[in-house]
What does this fold into?
Amino acid sequence: MRGFTLIEILLGVAISVLIFITAGSVMVTLYNSSTRTKQSQSLEQTKNDLQLEFLNNVRWGEEIESNLNSLRVDETVYELVDGRINKNGEAITSSEVEVRDFSVVDYSTSDGVASLEISIELVNKRLPSVSERLRVVVSQRQMEITEGGG
Amino acid sequence: MLNRRGYIVLEALLSIVVLSLVVLAVFPMLSFLLKRSERSKYEAAASLLVQEGIEVAYNVFLDEDEWGLSNGDYHPSLNASRGEWVLLVGGEQDIETRFDRVVNVASVCRTSGTGEVIDPETYESCGGVVDYLSKWVTTRVSWEEGGETKSLEAKLMLLKV
It folds into this structure.
């Protein structure tokens, strides 16, 4: 029976240190990746919510008026205020998301029936490297049926 | 004492083999999840492009003059001088460096009796009547992914009222 030699102990310590460093870096990477995924999902959710909001309201709206940074659909007004999109004065985007750009342009071929290109740039406040650009094209549906055609 | 040391080496080898098996089992799973996530990303982008094609076509055909566009493939574009959507002849390639898109316009064929829609693919000899007050608009977006061609499409019937 004999104890461990100095070389054996040093080797054991070195291997332990290597394992700790590897495990530590893996943990940090996993944590960062999980945070990034969470923030991306939150941004994706905001993007989907905005897409649905504009698609439904613009398609079936009766009176649509768009300026470069604001949109009115019947009685509802959307505008960019302090990095958030407001709907009749109430924010509809999360406080964790900064809206850097909200622009609306009407490219309709017919008067009185809007066809909008809505561009929105979203950035995560905690993780500015996580950003998304949403570009939605939506046409107002012709609600009034008139006689004619052929 | 010598036997015991040999047994420890065997244990170490066994643990390496077990670890390798675990790693080998986990890697395909990770690769599958990555591919799945990438696919969802491409599908989301493609669905926006499909929707854009449909929305632009809907708006373009509201214009009386455009209703007469002949059957065929088009792509949505912007007439910058007039600030209006237009449909240009032919499909478009490499949108966002990945997607191809085509907006197909086709006549609607109906049975003369009941007005039931007949499959537009048999339009040339549909056996019914061509309905000049209706059009099929089909937008198809395709892209290459992992050596395979994926596609997404949506179809809308437009009625002139």
Q: What stands out?
A: The radius of gyration of chain A is 27 Å. The CA atoms of residues 78 and 87 of chain A lie 5 Å apart. The longest strand of chain A covers residues 97-106. The mean pLDDT of chain A is 89.
